[in-house]
Specification:
alpha+beta, Aminopeptidase, 42% helix, 6-stranded mixed β-sheet
Length: 161
């Protein structure tokens, strides 16, 4: 949704910051190592400030991509579970530290907490290569939408245990 990698990095950081602030306040922002990876979980019942998101789309997205960003937001809204759920809003491991088990280690901590509460977990991924990783952790794909030729979102949840 951005014309350059530099703009993508700069503007995506603003979107990620929205979720990071919430996860930090809730005590559900996790870091592994010296920022080798992070996971931001949002607790059940949390309400998001849609106005702040829309403002970022208007000011941060290149004008050619604003409609794509808004369409993505509408699709994501359509899949949000009704029942109480934990939302993995952001997750990432630095490229050079992937395939070493750090991602599983980072997620398992919170998944154990979620299981202890018998609640479900929910996430979106934009890379089909991530699906097997999440499936190994108990997530199931329950939706997929093509937003445009360059953007597909895969919706996954992990039933309560």
């Amino acid at each position: 949704m951005y014309p350059s990698n530099d703009q993508y990095t700069s503007e995506m950081a603003k979107f990620i910051e929205l979720d990071a602030r919430t996860a930090i306040k809730q005590g559900t922002a996790w870091i592994i190592g010296e920022f080798l990876g992070v996971g931001y979980w949002i607790k059940p019942g949390t309400q998001f400030d849609d106005h702040e998101f829309y403002e970022l789309v208007k000011t941060g997205c290149h004008s050619d991509y604003q409609s794509t960003a808004l369409k993505l937001f509408e699709v994501l809204e359509e899949f949000i579970p009704i029942e109480p759920h934990w939302y993995l809003s952001f997750f990432g491991i630095l490229q050079e530290h992937r395939d070493k088990g750090l991602g599983s280690l980072l997620l398992k901590h919170t998944l154990e907490m979620i299981d202890a509460c018998s609640q479900m977990a929910y996430l979106e991924t934009f890379d089909v290569r991530n699906v097997p990783f999440y499936q190994r952790l108990g997530f199931e794909q329950f939706g997929m939408r093509v937003i445009d030729a360059n953007l597909t979102v895969i919706i996954m949840n992990r039933p309560a245990r």
